[in-house]
Design goal:
The complex is a heterodimer of chains A (250) and B (50).
Chain A (H helix, E strand, L loop, with lengths): L1 H71 L2 E6 L18 E6 L7 E6 L10 E5 L3 H4 L3 E3 L10 E7 L19 E5 L4 E12 L13 E9 L6 E11 L3 H5 L1
Parallel strand pairs in A: 4-5, 6-9
Antiparallel strand pairs in A: 1-2, 3-4, 3-7, 5-6, 7-8, 8-10, 9-10
Chain B lengths: L1 H7 L4 H31 L7
Classes of the chains: A alpha+beta (250), B mainly alpha (50).
Amino acid sequence: MSNLLTERTEPVASAAQRDGLLVRIIRFSGWLSIWLGLFLLGFVVHQLFLTTFLAQQNNTVLQAEAEVYFTQVTVNEVPYAPPGAPELTDPDDVPLPPAVLLVEEPPQPGEAFAIIRIPSLDRLKNGWTVVEGVSRSNLKNGVGHMPSTPLPGQPGNSVMSGHRTTFGAPFHEFDELQPGDIIGDETAIGIHIYEVRETIIVRPTEFWVTGPRDGAWLTLTTCHPKFSARQRLVIFAELVGGPNAAVISG
Amino acid sequence: MIRRMFNALPGPTPVRVVLAVIITVVAFVALMFVYDWMGSNLLDSGGAFS
């Protein structure tokens, strides 16, 4: 009798155990899905809204700081001869007075020193402050200037980087820029006017885009495509107006 | 689940409340770091070449 009972109850018990395990797995999967969903929702809210809100708040403060910086920084006049300028070989030639380039003191890391404006883009037509440096913390303000490159309005290749989708996304609409579009870059010297010449997409390891160039250029870099850091969208713009443009172009 | 986790904390209720607040703050800060890291590495690094 007892053997018969055992034989009958064992399959019932194992079925109940199996059902219990199934219920636990389903319950665990449910909780995991809920927490994962909340985690991802939090990530989206953090990246798209919180970082943008903070960057916009920072930008308002930094814009005021940049305007104070413009009045306080020292601007020097430096003699400048553009590369390739003809040298005087005839002793009878009367030397012309050297052209003078306006040069400002380099800003400190993290300091707001410029305001970039692009009239053809909604996000940048009212200006976005540029800070010195392109570290992760510098770029949390939106736009940073690569310290090893010249300042805007100076000969060479001035490089700036900015976020495309987070931290205010100042460079969000960069794929809409066309050759001929105007970029204004205000510094302590004045407003430097650049004209877009070329837009390219490269890998993040193609450092040549930040290298020196003849003349005066502004290179703007951002992530590409939107919502990915896989590539870089690079805008090359040439100096066409402003306090130093005529001197640099010779 | 949250109630079970709260009940699993040691000590009387006031101590548990303090511990729960500390754990929540630490977890929130850690979560922000994780979000920051994920955002910079997966979504938008800022476009720099450095």
